[in-house]
Structures are given as C-alpha cells and as structure tokens.
Predict the structure.
Amino acid sequence: MESWRLIDLGKAEPFTAQTFYEAVALAVSRGLSSNTLLLVQPASSYVCLGFHQELEREIDLEYCEEKGLPVIRRSQGGGATYLNSDQVFYQVVASKKSTIIPVRAEELFEKLLRATVRVYQRLGLPAEFKPINDVIVGGKKISGNGAGLIESAVVLVGNIILDLDYDSMSRVLKVPSEKFRDKMAKSMSEWVTSLRRELGYVPEGEMIKGLIAEAFEEVLGIDLQKAEPSEEERRIWEEEVKPKHRSAEWLHMGGGRRLSESLRAVKISGDVHVAEVDHKAAKLIRVSAELRGQEIQDISITGDFFMMPEETVNQLEVVLRGAKIEGAELEERIGRLFGETGVQMPGMSPRDFVEAIMKLREALPS
C-alpha cells in the first residue's frame, strides 16, 4: 500500500487555491516530495481560463475588472468557469512511476473519478461517471475535472460543488448578446447542479473533505497521512509558479497568435486570406489561419480540449506551417507528430484535428 500525503490548504486566496498544486507537482517530479492529495476551498471568487483558450474571446474582462474578479489561466485544458468558496477542490498529484495511477488519460479519469462518485453517493445521491471527465446526478453535471502532466507528475484536479451562482457563471463569459447570455444561464441551470439543489442544504466543508479523503483511500488503495507543504514546495511556488501565473505573458497566451475575429475568410491580398472556423468534436477546436491559396502560412489552434502534455499544441502549429489543406497531407503530418510525442487527448483523435483544419476550405471563397 502506497503512503501518500494529505495536505489541506483550508480556505486560500485564489492564486494559491488554483496554482499551489503545480508547485507540489514540480516537487514530486523532481523527487523532492511524495505523492499527494490536496484539498482546498477558494477564499474568494475568481474566473479560471483553460490552457488553450483565448482570454479576450472567452472572458468579459471589463465586467471582471469592475467586480474585482481575478482571472487565472490554469495549466490544464477545458473551458472557462467562475469559481468561489462554494466548491471544495481536490488535486491529485502523483509520480508517473506510481503503479496505481493509470498512464492513459481516459483510464485516469475513469479510475480517479470513482472517488468523486463515491462522495456524492455517500451523501445519498445517484451519482455516475460520465466520460470523458464529468460526474453527473440525474443527467446533470455536478463535478468538473481536468488532468495533465507537469514535468513527470500526473495531475488530476476537480471539485465537489456545494452551491452554484448561475448568474455569475454566465456573466463572466463573453457572449454576442444579452439574449444569448440569458439562454446560456438557463441552460446552465438546467444541466449543471449542486449539493444545495439536490439535497436542499449545503453540508459542512470539513465533512466533505473527510469524505473525499476516505473515498480516494478506498479507490486507490492508499494510506493518506496528514502533512503540511514543504519549504521546498513553498519556495517553488513563490519563485516559479506564482510569477508565471501573475504574468501578462501567461494570462494572454495565445492572444498575440490570434489571426482573425471573424468566423469567415477575409481577403488580405491576392490569394492570401485569413480564416477562422470552429469544429465541435468531443470538445471545441477553433482554428485561425493565414492561407496562401490552399497552403497554411500561419495557424493558431485553440479550444476547450485537453492534451497531455498541453504544450503539444504549439508543436502542432509549427508542423502545420507550409501544409496544404488536403486530408492525406494533414493526416500524415498530424499523425506523425502525435505518434512521436505520445500525446494524449481524452475523447479526441488526430482525425478531429484534420477535420477541423479541413473546414478552412469551406470558409474560403469559391
């Protein structure tokens, strides 16, 4: 039986709640710390952006500034969301060498989210795992989860949702119209739920933390020992993690690569066009490209998908420069890169990216 640390950060300010586990992951990867389960609640509200998303496209920055809401880009994929103290976060950090942590992302979600399912079931709710990375009750999402690699440490992050502020969840996102926002808020209310809605009350956070720890011990077959963050982890967070997440370069990552605000092709000169398309696979893939005829001159790939490691998307953009928008060539380039890197994309395949890029042809004038 593996012995893991159990670190409870209590109620922490947003940057600590959202990013401290990265310092732990770096320490685990470097052999400075053992495998760890962290528990934490944000002390105040903030907005969290997915690794591959475009800040200005996804978030209503003016509203966030007006309300004093920090915006934090996480190191995992997925979509933008509003978070506050009505969630209890669990953050699993383990070495890739661990024999109990699955290597494949889909298997990682399926195994570890059994613990989340068990927490809700012990509260009397008929919770189920829904691939790729959700836990549902009565068909409604009641836990959001992401996974990734930080150096050689495997990370899974997720939450137990105590209560939800649907108005704020919809208000922080950038939308084309207020009518669209109203529709989005209504949809959130219909398809995302919480313990308050399902039970009629909110259980104590400390009780929830106890259930989480117990469930992970059972599902993973580990022994959790209470601990505090090490001095080395605190140093890594102060010197490496915190400066990165507070930097404009990290927050606006991808913003400078954006080629068009239009969901169509715009002629620049001669046979040069800038085009953008959306492709909905298991997750959204958004492709912006500068094209000369049918050849890709520059390309930006964003969306709410997951990659492990997430930085592989940057390599993909490099590989695609100079490619023709032809299925066989795209399949060869994308397939070769993904094969060489061993990248994991839960619920997605290389074909999804081929199909997304092929849509650029539809956007071009005939």
Observations:
- Residues 2-251 form a domain with the BirA Bifunctional Protein; domain 2 fold (CATH 3.30.930.10).
- The chain is about 40% helix and 30% strand.
- The longest strand covers residues 2-12.
- The chain has two domains: 2-251, 255-363.
